[in-house]
Amino acid sequence: MGKHKLENTLNELKATGKPLFIPYMMAGDGGINQINERIQFLEECGASAIELGIPFSDPVADGPVIQDAGLRALQEGTTLKLVLDEVRKQKESRNIPIILMTYINPIWNYGYEQFAKHCDTAGVDGIIIPDIPMEEEEDIAAALSNQSIAFIRLAAMTSPDERLEKIAQDSEGFLYAVSVNGTTGERQQHDKNTLDYLKKLTALSSVPVLAGFGISNPEQAKSLAAYCDGVIVGSKIVHLFAEGKQTEIKELIGETVR
Amino acid sequence: MQSYTFPDKSGKYGKFGGRYVPELLMPAVLELEEAYEAAKNDPSFQEELNNYLTEYIGRTTPLYEAEQLSKHLGGPKIYLKREDLNHTGAHKINNTIGQALLTLRMGKKKVVAETGAGQHGVATATVCSLLGLECIVFMGAEDIKRQKLNVFRMELLGAKVVGVSQGSATLKDAVNEALRYWVNNVHDTHYIIGSVVGPHPFPRIVRDFQSVIGAETKQQSLEKQGKLPDAVVACVGGGSNAMGMFYPFVDDKEVALYGVEAAGKGVTTNEHAATLTGGSPGMLHGTFTYLLQDEAGQIQEAASISAGLDYPGIGPEHSHLHDTGRVNYPSITDEEALEAFQLLAKLEGIIPALESAHAVAYACKLAKEMSSEQSLVICLSGRGDKDVEQVKAKLEENSDGEA
Question: Any idea which residues are catalytic in this one (chain A) (predicted)?
Fold first, then answer.
C-alpha cells in the first residue's frame, strides 16, 4: 500500500510507453457523495492515479477555477476528515492509487501523525502539499514516512539547479513538475524553457516526472509528455465536472493515454 | 548587550514564523533575504533611507505629552508617539519607502501590494510614484466600496487598483490575490507586504523598517524625562506599528508592553479580530502564527470597525511574544474604540485613526492602575481623517437606536 503501490503502479504503466495521466478533482465539489463515484469514473477513463483536492479557504497556488470549486466544496461542508472517511469506504474495491492534494493548515489542525495514520487506513497512497517547501517539510515528512505514504515534492521553473536536484532526489511516488510560472489554470502553450526544464528533471529523478499546471488538451498533454513521463490536469477536469461534461473528460484522458 | 535575537536563521520566532510558500516563490524569498542583508549592512543604503525618512516623510515624529488626556485620566504622564504626522498620515510609509528602495536594489521595476482600508496601498503608491516604480494594488471589492476616496488617491498617484471579489472580498482575500499575482510575475515584481506577516523575511524586514518608531520613542523618552516609559501601548492587526514600537524595548524588561487587538462586537461573539485572544496556531499567508480558524483549519472572517485591524492572522513575532509573556495582548471593542476616538479629538485636538483609537482606549483603562510618577506611551499609528465619515454614520446609527 501507500508509497509502494503508487510507485509500482506508475512504473508499470510507464513501462508500456504510454504517457501517465493524473486527473485532479476537487473533493466535495458536487457533493461529498460524488467522491467515490467520480474516482471510479476517472479510473474507467484510463487515469493512472487520482489527485484528490482538499478544499481550503485561502488557496494561494490556485487560479480561479479551482478556487471556485473549493468554495463550492466548503459550502457542501467538506472537511479533510469527511473526505478520508469517504475514501476509506471504497478502499478494498479500489485499484487506482489515491493522492491527496492539500494545503498544510488543514493537516496541521488534523495533527500530522493522526493524518498520516488515517491516510493509511483510508488507502491514500501519496500526498501533495503546495505550500511546504523543503525548508519546512521535516515534521510532516517524518509523519508520512512512518506510514509509508509517498510525499510527492513539487519542483518549479524558478528553482535553481541545486534545489531541483534535492527535490528530485527526495520526491516519492513521482515528481510534480510545476510547468508554468504561475498559479493553476489553463494556458495556451508552454515554451521551450519548459521543455528543457522537464528534460532536466527527468534526468535527475529516479521516480516518474509528471508535468502539471496549465494543461488543458490532449495536444498540450502529449507534447509535454514527450519530455517527461506524463501529465496532471486539474482546472480543465474540475471545470468539465462542474459543467456535467463527463464525455469530454473521457475523451481528454482517452486521447492522451492512447 | 542585546539578548533577544529572533528571528533565527530559518526565520522562526520560537516555533512561529517560517516560510510556508510554494516552491515557485522560494527563490524570490531567498533573494529578498540576501538583498535585505546586504542593504542592511550597506551604509549608503541606510543613508539614502534616512534621507527619505527625514526629508520626504518628515521624521523624526514628535513624542507629544498629552497633558489634557493625562489630567483627565488622573494617572500617569501620557505621551503620544505621533506617527499620524508622517507623510500620508500613518506609520505605513516607514516600511514602504524601505521596501521600495530594496525593490530598486534587486533590479525589479514593478511592485504589487495588498490593502485593506487603503492606508498601506496609498503609502505604497506614494513611494512608487516617487521612485518611478510600476504599482498594482489588490483591494477587496467590499473595501473598495467602503473606501472610495483612498482608491482615487492611489489612482491619482499612478497605481492600478484591482478589486478582489473572491472569498469575503476583504483584506485576507486581497493578500491571497497579491500573493497569486506575485506567483505569476515573480521575475520582475516585488511584493511590498504591508505588515509584519507573510513568509520570512517579510516579518523581519517590516519590523526593522518600522522599528524607527520605537528607537525614536526610547531616545525621546530619555531626553524628556530621563527614563524609559513604564508602559507602551499600540494597536495590533497584523501588528506592524506595534512591532516597530515594541522591538527596541523587548530587552528592557521594566517597560510593560501592550498590543491591543480589535474585539469588534466582543471576543465571545463571532465578530471580532482578536487573533491571540480567540484564535489558535496555524499556517496562513506563508507563516505559522495564531489565526482565527475553525476546527478543520479553514480560515474565518475577522470583523472590526477598523479596516486596518480586520485580519484573521497576526505577525508571527507577536505570537511568540504572546506565548513567552513578554507582551500583553488585551482587546478593545468597537464601542470602546469609538469613545476613545471622540475623547482624543475633544481633549487634545487630535483625531486618531480608528486603529489607533484602540490603543488610546486601552491606555485609558491602563492609566487607572498607574501612578502619577509613571509614564505611558501610546503609539498613535495614524490620523483619523479617513474614518470620520464612517464614525459619523456609526454615531448617528447609535443615537437613532437610543431614541
Answer: 51, 62
Answer whether residue B403 shows pLDDT above 90. Answer: no
CA–CA min distance A61, chain B (Å): 7
Q: Identify whether A133 is preceded by a cis peptide bond (ω within 30 of 0).
A: no
CA–CA gap between residue A14 and residue A231 (Å, rounded)? 12
The CATH superfamily holding the domain A5-257 is Aldolase class I (3.20.20.70)
Neighbour order of strands in the sheet with B160-164? B160-164, B134-140, B110-115, B189-191
- Which contacts of B390-396 are long-range, i.e. CB under 8 A and separated by 24 or more positions? B390/B146, B390/B305, B390/B354, B391/B338, B391/B341, B391/B354, B394/B305, B394/B338, B395/B338
Residue B129, pLDDT score: 98
Sort A247 into a burial class: Cβ within 10 Å, 0-12 / 13-18 / 19+: exposed
Q: What is the pLDDT of residue B1?
A: 56
Regions of chain A where pLDDT drops below 50: none
Contact B27 A159 (CB under 8 A): yes
At B369, phi and psi to the nearest 5?
Answer: -95, 5
pTM for the full predicted model: 0.97
pLDDT in tens, B285-334: 999 999 999 999 999 999 999 988 989 999 999 999 999 999 999 999 99
CA distances from B22 to A6, A128, A182, B362 (A): 23, 11, 10, 39
Query: The complex's ipTM?
Result: 0.96
Nearest residue of A to residue B175 by CA position?
A: A60
CB contact under 8 A, B299 and A57: yes
pLDDT tens profile B213-234: 999 999 999 999 999 999 999 9
CA distance B62 to A140: 49
Q: Where in chain B is the domain with CATH 3.40.50.1100?
A: 12-17+24-54+92-202, 58-89+211-401
- B9/A contact by beta carbon, under 8 A: no
**DSSP single-letter state for residue A25:** E
Q: Where are the domains of chain A?
A: 5-257
Q: Does B18 touch chain A (CB under 8 A)?
A: yes
pLDDT of residue A83: 98
Nearest CA in chain A to B18: A136
CATH level 3 topology of B58-89+211-401: Rossmann fold (3.40.50)
pLDDT at residue B169 in the model = 83
B contacts of A134 (beta carbons < 8 Å): 23
Residue B163 near chain A (CB below 8 Å): no
